[in-house]
Amino acid sequence: GENVEQHPSTLSVQEGDSAVIKCTYSDSASNYFPWYKQELGKRPQLIIDIRSNVGEKKDQRIAVTLNKTAKHFSLHITETQPEDSAVYFCAASRYTGNQFYFGTGTSLTVIP
Amino acid sequence: GAVVSQHPSRVICKSGTSVKIECRSLDFQATTMFWYRQFPKQSLMLMATSNEGSKATYEQGVEKDKFLINHASLTLSTLTVTSAHPEDSSFYICSARRGTELNSPLHFGNGTRLTVT
C-alpha cells in the first residue's frame, strides 16, 4: 500500500516569513495530492491540490510543487500570518484505489 | 462547495452503551464515504470505507463488530460504536467524495468527539 511521510512535525516561523512542508510517497501509481488545513477541534479543510500531470500550482500565498520522479511534493506558504497557524496534512491517492493516505501532519505556528 | 454534515458533534456515553454517528452528504451523492479516527495531535487514521448498498471495507486492526457501518443511501452513512469503552474515546470524522468525480478531494464532516465514561 501507499506510505506517506511528512516533515517536519512542528514548524515555527515569524510572521511574514515563508513556511515549507514536505511529503514523500511510495506508490508510483498515486496521481492526486491534496493538502488539508485543520484548526484545533475542527474539520480538515482542503487548501490546495495538485494532480500528477502538473509540476506546480499556486493560489495566492499558497503553492504546491510535485516531483514525480523523486516521489515528493511540498507545500509553500509565503508571507505567513498568525491565522495560518494550524495543523497541515498532505495526502496521496490514486484514481483506481479511491483511498486517501495521509501524512502524519505538521503543526505550524506563526509568531506575530 | 460540497458539504458533509456529521452528527452529533459531541457525545458522552457510559461504558457498555452504543453510540451512533451520522454522516450526510448534503449537496451531492456519495457512493463511498470514509470514516477516520483521530487521536489528539495525531494524523487521520482510516478506519473503514463505507460503500453504498454493500458491506464496508475495514482497515487492518479495526474490529468490524465493534464499529458497525451502514451506508443505506447515497447521502447517508452511519458509524455505530457498540459496547463502548473508555479507550474508544476519540475524535471520529467522516468524509466523502462526489459520486463520479475522478481524483476529487475529500470533503470532511465536522467530526464527533466521543467520550466514554
Key structural traits:
heterodimer, A: 112 residues, mainly beta, 6-stranded mixed beta sheet, 5-stranded antiparallel beta sheet, 11 strands, 56% strand, B: 117 residues, 7-stranded mixed beta sheet
Structure in words:
The complex is a heterodimer of chains A (112) and B (117). Chain A is mostly beta strands and 112 residues long. Chain A is 0% helix and 56% strand. Chain A starts with a strand and ends with a strand. In chain B, strand 5 and strand 6 form a beta hairpin. The mean pLDDT of chain B is 90. At the A-B interface, strand 4, strand 5, strand 9 and strand 10 of A face strand 5 and strand 10 of B.
Explain the layout of strands and helices.
The complex is a heterodimer of chains A (112) and B (117).
Chain A: E1 4-7, E2 10-14, E3 19-25, E4 32-38, E5 45-51, E6 56-59, E7 62-67, E8 72-77, E9 86-93, E10 100-102, E11 106-111
Parallel strand pairs in A: 2-11
Antiparallel strand pairs in A: 1-3, 3-8, 4-5, 4-9, 6-7, 7-8, 9-10, 9-11
Chain B: E1 4-7, E2 10-13, E3 19-25, E4 32-38, E5 44-51, E6 57-58, E7 67-73, E8 76-81, E9 90-96, E10 107-108, E11 112-116
Parallel strand pairs in B: 2-11
Antiparallel strand pairs in B: 1-3, 3-8, 4-5, 4-9, 5-6, 7-8, 9-10, 9-11
Number of helices of chain A: 0
- N-to-C terminal Cα separation of chain A, in Å? 41 Å
**Whole-number average pLDDT of chain B?**
90
Gyration radius of chain B (Cα, Å) is 13 Å
> Please, how many helices of chain B?
0
What is the first-to-last residue Cα distance of chain B?
37 Å
Largest sheet of chain A: 6 strands, mixed
**Biggest β-sheet description of chain B:** 7 strands, mixed
Helical proportion of chain B?
A: under 10%
What share of the residues of chain B does DSSP label as strand, in percent? over 45%
The strand count of chain B comes to 11
Approximate strand percentage of chain A: over 45%
Greatest interface and its participating residue counts: A-B, 26 and 20 residues
